[in-house]
Design goal:
heterotrimer, A: mainly alpha, 2 domains, 6 strands, about 65% helix, B: alpha+beta, 5-stranded mixed beta sheet
């Protein structure tokens, strides 16, 4: 639990840095930065390995947590008629299993919202943009382009087609001429946009989930160190402060993103 | 402070034996001196019950000075009652007020089956100790001179603090998971901190943890309740030390 | 020759034990697994014996009435354990420890036993350290020592205020190892109900499983009784609630002599009795007398006013206080030995100066105000303040006290709800240890062959008064280093005996008589609880066989206890059945034995027409109220033979004490 938990904490940091692209840069620049980041995350071989480690960690953390909780419940078949645990332990510490389950529900929902669309159903459209160029007659023409990794602009018309997700081919000759990006940025923006009827609900759900995550981390961060045997008078205070800081700052920043998008 | 006399209501777990079902029974007890210890209050109740020709309440106790570890009791939702750093035998009735209702339950743990009423069987602790809680040295009296092996005072003091555990089981009782990690951690720590214990350190921690798991205790989720409720203030540091020893042993053991 | 053969080896005192060991018979390792040994009790003496015998390869069965062998009352010992290691280079030696112990026992202990105890004392420390017992250490990593009463050297090893706990857990760990290896079978929540003798030899015990109530027969080639002392005969004592005399008494009933029952140690500094529902007394460490001054009000009116709550001790002027120990014993002052301090407190309270508002007005003050001021001044000077205000001195002084005695002050406050930094502690003597016990010879064997008795349960090493930090020493010495040799010598004759069967008329008779006595007590259907009788017994014992005894009181006690015994058996009410956990039944069976013992204590005290150590007869004191020994007529061990539940029928046998190596002198603390 401790090892996977701490690994997932580092994952949170990586994920957060990426997500911050959604609000730190604006306009077309932000869109490009985020989509490029999204591409990097799903195509870099090292990241791919890391993401598999992450999936396994989440599964292991969840399954192990459930198994431990079952064992722990069995260890006290008859509950106390009168119990006063608030005198000896913090609330998050006692509700780790419940908090963890809620986090798991959130992760499932979150993955259905974005990850599934991105990776499985491929509902996320290609990143394209409209460029206004004068034609030979001097008329301004709006033309839509994909752009590729080597910064080519490929017109979005019948001459070109998309294959294997993001590969751009010349339709007639079946020659790959470049690779484009998926436009996850727009999907996210629309998902949380005021224009979207269900956005308010989504924002609330995400923000509440971050509260849950915060409580989970409030106990979990320092607890992981204790489980690994890292309890030392000299460092306990530091681990405690860092843990609580982490539990507040990371979920807070995650939660701010949908709020800002919604309010835009 | 002058002793006062209070009247209280008690809700006490009664259970004939391990095989029958139990229930909370209500008793009223008058004129309890606030100078009485909690167990003396139960003595008084038992005297009253016997005089009414009823069966007295069975509870474990012996030294009544906070060191033998025999007394237990979950009082108003807390192991050894509301005062920290105190065993039930040293808890005094001045912690309660006139008219109070006091819940008294046995330790609840699968590994501590109820024997009768408030008496539980804690021999699981003994079996954990038998699995490795010792230094394998025979009685010869001259293995080596006591002063031939200097031990840093800090280590000796820490070993003593761990060894101060009285084996009462309050850690298990107050842990929401019914975990025995503080008890086992204290024993493992005592020996891990001393040179005499180093030789068998690897087998000791593996064997004791295996026995602990077999006994049906729950897992440690670091809530820290055990440390707060431990009448001897055994530190969570001991659990961390055991975790360290366990990881080390698990990685290096060839068994 | 007397029936009491002490079997003390001949030769110079320092060579007796070594020579004896060298000539004892052994049991070869391959024969040991054929031999069974029963050990009753798992305190220091029992656990160490069971562990050692298990290591040797015998089949051991160990019994304790508690839920775990680790609970035995040795665990409550605070101060420390003596050993003649001379680590402090202050002139200690085996001889000095031997001499101090004999003198401390007021010349009523056996020289040879005590010398052996001093000889093996060093091994105890080596053994415990090897087992991982965390004794207190100095910054250099070596073992620390402190000094204790009755000695002029620093030979006491300790582990904070929990030395007994650490030593017992050490012995328990050794025992646990043997249980884990299958060489010792542990029977917890089992109480020994009787000893079984076949052809005159101890061959087993009858035990009651306290959870199921089953009466079990256990056979063995030898039985070791290590069941502790009998202080609970006084009802209120510093002993554990379960401490009892029953195992020792059953052995006595089966023919073992019971020696010196009247020798009881009463510890001067305990928290006084607060009321009629009190179950137990708590010791405050002797070390407090280093800093506290003991006093009572000079005027009886002041004492009365204090008891009535009209006056506070701090309101009594200095000249109206009687620091009676400093007045009577200017040389030793507040640090006189335990028995002297206890008697002096009783004398003042009997004279009407007691300050505790309880039924008996028994209590004196232990006052730290003087020490707080003087240590406060010292601390202030050390900080460079040569003109400290009283307030400053008080503040610094309290800090000094807290560092030194913080945990004791906290414990006192928990029990009494009074702050001893602000108001003097109230203390009073309480029964603490019993020097008497089953008579044993030099080999720790009782007058029943095959029945050995160790630790506080025997009588052997402390004479009429035990020195502080010597009880732990004796328990472990017996169990680790004496019994394993002497019992092997006995068992060497048993290698051809073969397995002892429990299918014999002797086992049946013993089991049936146990069942009958249980049945009798359960069907009695009387009107009073066990505690009712126990409290009455305790009151008689405390008032008439307590700190000060006299012929009249003892005779009354003998008669009153006789009547109480009749009344108990006719009128006690024990609810519940025999086939379940029945704590009232356990208590009743123990109290029945305590009543018989109590009467014998009074009889023994009556015959001992002298004062020595813990036994003080009002008639035998010098002009200044000190003990007056009669070495000409009473330099003997009084060993009593059982002749029925009426202890007045017991027969006295005497073992003369020979002092060949120490010259007898009077104890003087003025």
């Amino acid at each position: 639990m401790a090892l996977t938990g701490l690994f997932l904490c580092t994952f949170l940091v990586g994920h957060l840095l990426g997500n911050l692209q959604l609000i730190l840069k604006t306009g077309e620049e932000g869109r490009r930065a985020f989509n490029e980041y999204a591409y990097f995350m799903s195509h870099n071989p090292a990241i791919k390995i890391l993401s598999w480690v992450t999936y396994i960690s989440i599964l292991f953390h969840a399954i192990d947590g459930i198994l431990l909780t079952i064992q722990n419940k069995k260890a006290r078949p008859i509950p106390y008629a009168r119990n006063n645990p608030s005198k000896n332990s913090s609330t998050p510490a006692r509700y780790m299993a419940v908090l963890g389950t809620l986090v798991l529900v959130f992760i499932a929902t979150h993955m259905a919202n974005f990850w599934y669309k991105m990776k499985i159903s491929e509902e996320v459209p290609m990143h394209s943009f409209i460029v206004s160029v004068p034609d030979q007659s001097g008329q301004i023409q709006n033309q839509e382009f994909y752009y590729t990794h080597n910064l080519q602009l490929i017109p979005k018309d019948d001459n070109f087609s998309v294959k294997n997700g993001t590969d751009l081919y010349m339709s007639k000759m079946n020659i790959k001429i470049g690779e484009g990006y998926r436009d996850l940025h727009t999907v996210v923006m629309q998902f949380f946009s005021k224009d979207n009827d269900s956005a308010l609900f989504a924002v609330l759900f995400y923000v509440l989930s971050m509260f849950v995550l915060s409580f989970h981390l409030w106990h979990g961060f320092a607890s992981a160190f204790q489980s690994l045997g890292l309890n030392h008078k000299k460092y306990n205070a530091a681990i405690g402060y860092i843990g609580k800081g982490f539990a507040i700052v990371v979920p807070l920043l995650f939660a701010i993103i949908p709020i800002i998008i919604y309010l835009k | 402070m002058a002793a006062k006399s209070i009247n209280i209501t008690l809700k006490i777990w009664r259970q004939k034996n391990a095989n029958t079902k139990g229930a909370l029974e209500t008793y009223s007890l008058n004129e309890v001196s606030t100078d009485s210890s909690f167990l003396e209050m139960l003595d008084q109740l038992n005297e009253q019950l016997i005089n009414e020709r009823k069966e007295p309440i069975a509870f474990d106790h012996d030294c009544r000075e906070g060191i033998c570890g025999m007394c237990s009791l979950y009082i108003n939702g807390r192991a050894h009652g509301p005062e920290t750093g105190t065993t039930t035998c040293q808890l005094h009735m001045r912690m309660f007020s006139d008219g109070d209702t006091i819940y008294v339950e046995p330790w609840r743990s699968r590994a501590f089956p109820i024997v009768k009423d408030l008496v539980v069987d804690r021999s699981a602790f003994d079996r954990i100790q038998q699995a490795g809680g010792f230094v394998s040295v025979n009685t010869s009296g001259n293995t080596m001179d006591a002063n031939s092996l200097p031990i840093p005072k800090d280590d000796a003091d820490k070993a003593f603090e761990a060894a101060a555990c009285i084996g009462c089981g309050a850690c298990v009782a107050s842990c929401k998971n019914g975990s025995a990690m503080l008890f086992v951690g204290a024993k493992v720590s005592q020996y891990a901190l001393l040179p005499q214990g180093k030789v068998e350190a690897r087998d000791r921690v593996l064997n004791m943890v295996r026995q602990m798991d077999e006994e049906g205790f729950g897992n440690c989720t670091n809530t820290g309740a055990c440390e707060v409720e431990c009448p001897k203030g055994i530190s969570l540091e001991n659990i961390a030390r055991m975790n360290r020893e366990f990881l080390k042993a698990g990685l290096s053991s060839e068994k | 020759m007397s029936v009491l053969d002490s079997k003390i080896p001949t030769g110079p005192i320092a060579e007796k034990w070594t020579n004896h060991k060298n000539h004892m018979n052994l049991v070869a390792p391959n024969n040991r697994p054929k031999i069974d040994v029963i050990v009753v009790g798992t305190g220091l003496a029992g656990a160490s014996a069971a562990a050692s015998l298990g290591e040797m390869g015998y089949n051991v069965k160990a019994f304790c009435f508690q839920d775990s062998p680790r609970r035995a009352h040795s665990i409550a010992a605070q101060g420390g354990i003596n050993a003649a290691k001379n680590y402090q280079n202050d002139g200690d030696s085996v001889y000095r420890l031997f001499y101090d112990t004999i003198k401390g026992g007021d010349y009523r202990a056996r020289e040879a036993n005590v010398h052996r105890l001093a000889e093996v004392s060093g091994n105890i420390i080596d053994q415990c350290v090897a087992q991982g017992v965390p004794f207190a250490r100095e910054y250099g990593g070596l073992l620390d020592n402190r000094s204790f009463g009755g000695t002029q050297v620093q030979r006491t090893f300790y582990a904070a205020g929990q030395t007994g706990q650490q030593l017992l857990l050490g012995a328990y760990s050794a025992l646990s190892r043997q249980i884990g290896l299958g060489r010792v079978k542990m029977y917890h929540r089992h109480e020994m109900m009787d000893l079984v003798k076949i052809d005159g030899k101890a061959r087993g015990i009858i035990a009651r499983n306290l959870v199921t109530g089953e009466i079990e027969k256990h056979a063995a080639h030898a039985v070791v009784i290590a069941s502790g002392g009998y202080g609970n005969v006084y009802f209120l004592s510093t002993n554990a609630m379960g401490s009892n005399v029953s195992a020792a008494w059953k052995v006595h009933k089966r023919g073992a002599m019971f020696a010196n029952p009247c020798y009881v140690q009463i510890h001067p500094t305990c928290v006084p009795v607060h009321g009629t529902n009190q179950s137990k007394l708590t010791l405050m460490s002797e070390s407090l007398r280093n800093s506290g001054r003991i006093w009572v009000p000079k005027k009886k009116e002041d004492a009365e006013a204090i008891r009535a709550g009209q006056l506070k001790p701090t309101q009594i002027a200095e000249e109206d206080r009687d620091y009676y120990l400093e007045r009577r014993y200017p040389a030793f002052g507040n640090l006189v030995p335990r028995d002297v301090a206890s008697r002096a407190a009783k004398e003042r309270c009997d004279a009407g100066h007691g300050i505790e508002a309880n039924d008996t007005n028994e209590g004196v003050y232990l006052d730290f105000a003087t020490e707080i001021l003087s240590k406060g001044r010292q601390s202030a000077y050390a900080l460079g303040d040569h003109n400290p205000t009283e307030e400053k001195m008080r503040e610094l002084g309290k800090k000094w006290i807290e560092e030194k005695y913080g945990n004791l002050f906290q414990m006192y406050q928990k029990i009494t709800d009074e702050n001893p930094y602000e108001t003097p502690m109230k203390i009073y003597p309480a029964v603490h240890y019993t020097m008497g016990g089953v008579w044993v010879d030099y080999n720790l064997q009782s007058t029943i062959p095959g029945c050995f008795v160790t630790g506080e349960a025997n009588f052997s090493d402390h004479g009429a008064n035990r020195l502080g930090a010597s009880a732990l020493m004796q328990g472990l010495a017996d169990g680790y280093f004496v019994l394993p040799y002497t019992i092997s010598d006995y068992l060497s004759n048993e290698i051809r005996t073969g397995k002892i069967s429990t299918e014999s008329p002797e086992f049946d008779e013993a089991a049936e008589s146990v069942k009958a006595s249980i049945e009798k007590i359960l069907s009695n259907n009387g009107t009073h609880t066990v505690d009712h009788f126990h409290k009455r017994l305790g009151l008689i014992m405390w008032n008439k066989v307590g700190m000060g005894r006299n012929e009249k009181g003892l005779k009354e006690a003998i008669e009153e206890i006789g009547l109480l015994r009749e009344e108990f058996h006719n009128d006690v009410f024990v609810p519940g059945t025999a086939e379940e956990l029945n704590q009232e039944l356990e208590k009743a069976l123990r109290v029945a034995d305590l009543i018989e013992l109590g009467q014998l204590m009074a009889i023994d005290a009556l015959q001992r027409k002298e004062s020595c150590g813990g036994h003080f007869r009002d008639e035998y004191q010098d002009a200044e109220g000190e003990t007056l020994r009669d070495d000409e007529n009473f330099k003997f061990v009084a060993a009593w033979e059982y002749n029925g539940s009426d202890s007045t029928k017991s027969t006295l046998h005497k073992e003369d004490l020979k002092y060949e190596f120490i010259k007898i002198a009077a104890r003087n603390y003025k």
